[in-house]
Give the backbone structure.
Amino acid sequence: MVYLEGMQRVFSRVQNHVGERRMPTNVNVYVTDVTSIYPSDSPFTSVGADDRPYVVLRSRMDAPTREAALACAEAEAIHEATHVCAWTLRPPQRNPLVEREWNWLNEGTAIFMESEIAAGNPGFMRFVMDWVDKPEVSLPDPAAEYQAGMFVRYMAKTFGEKFVWCLWSESTEDQGPIAALDDALKAKGRDLRTLFHDYCMDSYFTCDPDRKSFFPRVHARFGSRLARETWRLTQGAATKEAATDLPHLACHYYRVHPGGCRFRVSLETHSLSLAIAAMGYSRDFPGDGSTREVLTIGSEISTNADQVIITVSNSHARPGPAPEYTLRVTPI
Ligand SMILES: [Zn+2]
């Protein structure tokens, strides 16, 4: 019953977003001891010889309580039903290279739907820890496909959930998800570079109710995303410097405590896909009287903010050698 309800909630919700495109009315769902047919104990969705998706869910669960097992069953049903919707809107193509490119969006969409539909069910939170701790991991990295749920969530909060489903329904056969996203953004007068950069900066502030990435549960459990360095400035002190490289579709954060100092920020790089931004905020953020301040890089920065978060992001769409950069923060 939990399985059925979870799946139906996904189908009717997605149907609302896709209009005349019909979500499946009958899907083959097998509930069995998954370990008897598959090396791992995970539920899964696959495509049969008739090109229709089918779902395999678990008949046995080692969750320690009945409540935990039901919560798990709900999340797994929502997750797999999301894969069915994605593959109904965009049936998997014969080209395995193109299909592999869609993995991160497929898992990211499923995790996003878990976080939205199963209100109060914290199952998806186990994937959030790496998203918080490893902002330098590429969005499409095969080891981080579930973490992409946070990027999908950002897109849904920015443009509406329909936008996410249109990536599935409007893409062409030979397109990967980044190309599909690029097209969808162009139709809105936006581009991947600014969207990705905005996402990176925004997603540091999961504690800020005015942000698309506002997610108090995530902030309460894991805190802010990991800053690569924390620098405390004192007047006349030496320049703080970080020289490193950054993979595509990833970011680094630097936390600066100005301590009343004026300072300059500079980014030295040969890459056109790197972008930088700085945001000041007060320590008791987001409490009463807290402030947020977008700071202009390249000019002398003078702020009363307790902390300044510098975001360096790489919006390059394709994998390749990670571009190098040097970030300098100089107290004046
Ligand atoms: Zn999945």
Remarks:
- The mean pLDDT is 90.
